[in-house]
UniProtKB/TrEMBL annotation:
Keywords: DNA-binding, Transcription, Transcription regulation. It comes from Nonomuraea turkmeniaca. InterPro entries: GntR_C (IPR011711), TF_FadR/GntR_C (IPR008920), Tscrpt_reg_HTH_GntR (IPR000524), WH-like_DNA-bd_sf (IPR036388), WH_DNA-bd_sf (IPR036390). This is GntR family transcriptional regulator. Residues 1-66 form the HTH gntR-type domain. GO terms for molecular function: DNA binding; DNA-binding transcription factor activity. It holds the Pfam family FCD.
Length: 213
């Protein structure tokens, strides 16, 4: 469906920073960029507004960034949801409900994320980090939690694009991923929930300190 294609492509442009927070985008400009008619683009912009990535402004929209208080709330919700998905994934692993190939995929993404982070390849690291957390959410088998996380991840990514920089402690970040990976692999659901929650809140705390240096 053209509307879904338009929404997906515009979302990618926003998340990649081509249209950063504060950027104004009209239907005509978006349609020209996507080489599509204005009707699916109009519907796509409405969908992105419903997801909180843009807000109506005149004949177009403006890309939205969360204010600091709202960003803190987004991280709190993200921490709760990622604790849930990590717990569910570990429980499913303990019950033998996760295919070995799917678990290997999670290990592979973790390794690639660590490598990109250590080498300072920021764009790759951001993309792979999200894939790592999304893979855990997929292994949890809870569609509603995954959908909610997708929206929160989008809003956080757009809102923190301006302050993105290589982690000051890349080994620490990778170590947290390794801890989470280990307890999920072992099927330790309570530990998985605790580590996932702590990891997300630590990510916010570290980013907050960097922003206010």
């Amino acid at each position: 469906m053209q509307t879904d294609v338009a929404c997906s492509r515009l979302r990618e442009l926003i998340l990649d920073g081509v249209y950063p927070p504060g950027a104004r985008l009209t239907e005509m400009e978006a349609a020209a960029t996507l080489e599509m008619s204005r009707t699916p683009v109009r519907e796509a912009l409405r969908m992105l507004a419903a997801d909180g990535l843009v807000r109506p402004a005149g004949r177009g929209v403006v890309v939205v960034a969360l204010e600091e208080a709202d960003l803190n709330e987004a991280y709190q919700v993200r921490a709760a949801l990622e604790a849930l998905t990590a717990e569910l994934a570990a429980a499913r692993q303990r019950e033998g409900r996760i295919a070995p190939a799917d678990l290997r995929t999670l290990h592979d993404v973790a390794t690639r994320t660590a490598t990109a982070t250590a080498e300072g390849r920021l764009a790759d690291a951001v993309r792979l980090n999200r894939r790592f957390h999304r893979t855990i959410a997929e292994l949890a088998g809870n569609t509603m939690a995954l959908q909610a996380l997708e929206r929160i991840w989008d809003q956080i990514q757009v809102s923190t694009l301006h302050s993105l920089m290589p982690p000051s402690r890349p080994a620490h970040v990778s170590g947290q991923h390794d801890e989470l990976l280990a307890v999920i692999t072992d099927g330790r659901h309570e530990a998985a929930a605790a580590i996932a929650r702590a990891h997300v809140l630590d990510t916010r705390s570290t980013a907050h300190k960097e922003e206010h240096r």
